Amino acid sequence: MKLLTEQSSLDFVAQLSPEHNGSLNMSWALGTDCCSWEGINCRGENTVRDISLPSKGLAGSISPSLSNLAKLLHLNLSHNSLSGGLPMDSLLFSSIAVLDVSFNHLDGPLQELQSSNPSLSLPL
């Protein structure tokens, strides 16, 4: 059940993928294990830990459903055409240690994310 929840949380990335990006769309087929999808790495109990989709031609906005990926540590969506703001409410309470959304068309305020380790702050 946990994997199904994580897979549905990743649906927002599939919606960002352009239809002409065949390799990404083919690997993100419905009914397949999301841990086998391009750019998704799982560890332990089939828990999504890393999303790495730089330079994939992704467009649209980053969904707050990202917060459902409770064990996500690394998120790299750099060098795409993402727009809008970051879902800060989702990111503030997440486990993300590395966030790279550089070279997109994002706007809005950025604020420092708190680390799960109180003695470590995450710089912008």
From TrEMBL:
Species, as recorded: Oryza nivara
Identify this protein by name: Leucine-rich repeat-containing N-terminal plant-type domain-containing protein
Q: Could you tell me the membrane topology recorded for this protein?
A: Single-pass type I membrane protein
Gene Ontology terms: cellular component: plasma membrane
Q: Does the record's keyword annotation contain Protein biosynthesis?
A: no
Q: Please state where this protein is localized.
A: Cell membrane
Q: Where is the Leucine-rich repeat-containing N-terminal plant-type domain?
A: 10-42
Read off the SUPFAM superfamilies from this record: L domain-like (SSF52058)
Quote the InterPro entries the UniProt record gives: At_inactive_RLKs, LRR_dom_sf, LRR_N_plant-typ
Q: Do you know which Pfam families this protein is assigned to?
A: LRRNT_2
Keywords, comma-separated and alphabetical: Leucine-rich repeat, Repeat
